Amino acid sequence: MPHYVIVGAGIIGHYTAYKLLENNVHPDDILIVAKFHPGDESINYTSPYAGGNFSCITGDDPDTLAYDKVTYTELGNLQRFLGGPQCGLDRYKSTEYFVEPPSERKIASWKTYLYDLAILREEDLPEDVSYGIEYISWNFNCPKFLVSFQNLLKSLGVRFERRELKNIREAYYTDTKVVFNCTGLGSRSLGGVNDDKSFPMRGQVVVIKAPHIQENVMKWDAAKPTYIIKRPYSNDQLILGGFLQKGDWTADTFREQTEDILKRTTELYPKILEENRKGKRIEDLEILRVVAGLRPGREGGARIEKEFVDAGRVLIHNYGAAGYGYQAGIGMADKAVSLALDRSKL
């Protein structure tokens, strides 16, 4: 029976399995249990809907800065582990604009690890922007990446089970040493957890075909973020967003939000239209899909915590990454696994 059970098959669950393997846990001792698995689609399974890149929008508390740095610096190893860029993970130039300037603590952290980091000159910034940077980022083709990740874990011997748990205690088998709760927004309703601090942060994105765009451009405004993300190994898909709607559980998408996204992204980065072979109008863009997703937000930030349940069984919580699971999740998993194995790293 499995010694380590991970509940949740989103990006945080996969990163956690990866970190267990890195710490010499045998694949046969790892089981991932979830209702939804890579390749599935549901508003309750957020990871496949993410824009999917490393960005500089996360908080500046010491834990978050550490999670970002660990993840950014380890993604190259993970890419090699998964067989190269064709797994759905590759590097692209990223330009990021900030309406409100980032803190000195955050900037100082970036300077220790971001590749080819350059601070933009004031004269090169859009009118309503106070700060800007360029660097080499990591981009994810989230659906492809998750499937690649799962396939590799399976090939090594990690087991997956499709099962919906009503209570976290159902994850414990006779020989289970540790259960990792990686259920994201599901932690709000999962029995034995019932975290009422968890809440959705709805986003809507537009996916277009744009072979001439080979970079990311983002503008961070707390009220309405705007982002353009190249999706690697996707037959030239470009992700346009977006929205950050706290407490909104709506799975539907809306035309007015789509139109707003198209307007904001093409104003921020006119090249989307300038090299469009069919013309220079928004109406000529080839829209492939419009989709909504519910980021797993949490008051107070991510919860990475050790708990003892019935008869002293260990439960490690690892959820609440909001929109930052892909870019901070290896660092989060590193801390969660360190807690499980009683090793202090972060």
TrEMBL record:
<comment type="similarity">
    <text>Belongs to the DAMOX/DASOX family.</text>
</comment>
<dbReference type="GO" id="GO:0005737">
    <property type="term" value="C:cytoplasm"/>
</dbReference>
<feature type="domain" description="FAD dependent oxidoreductase">
    <location>
        <begin position="4"/>
        <end position="336"/>
    </location>
</feature>
<feature type="binding site">
    <location>
        <position position="227"/>
    </location>
    <ligand>
        <name>D-dopa</name>
    </ligand>
</feature>
<keyword id="KW-0274">FAD</keyword>
<dbReference type="GO" id="GO:0071949">
    <property type="term" value="F:FAD binding"/>
</dbReference>
<dbReference type="InterPro" id="IPR006076">
    <property type="entry name" value="FAD-dep_OxRdtase"/>
</dbReference>
<feature type="binding site">
    <location>
        <begin position="46"/>
        <end position="47"/>
    </location>
    <ligand>
        <name>FAD</name>
    </ligand>
</feature>
<feature type="binding site">
    <location>
        <position position="295"/>
    </location>
    <ligand>
        <name>D-dopa</name>
    </ligand>
</feature>
<dbReference type="Pfam" id="PF01266">
    <property type="entry name" value="DAO"/>
</dbReference>
<keyword id="KW-0560">Oxidoreductase</keyword>
<keyword id="KW-0285">Flavoprotein</keyword>
<dbReference type="InterPro" id="IPR006181">
    <property type="entry name" value="D-amino_acid_oxidase_CS"/>
</dbReference>
<dbReference type="InterPro" id="IPR023209">
    <property type="entry name" value="DAO"/>
</dbReference>
<feature type="binding site">
    <location>
        <position position="323"/>
    </location>
    <ligand>
        <name>D-dopa</name>
    </ligand>
</feature>
<protein>
    <recommendedName>
        <fullName>FAD dependent oxidoreductase domain-containing protein</fullName>
    </recommendedName>
</protein>
<feature type="binding site">
    <location>
        <position position="183"/>
    </location>
    <ligand>
        <name>FAD</name>
    </ligand>
</feature>
<dbReference type="GO" id="GO:0019478">
    <property type="term" value="P:D-amino acid catabolic process"/>
</dbReference>
<dbReference type="GO" id="GO:0003884">
    <property type="term" value="F:D-amino-acid oxidase activity"/>
</dbReference>
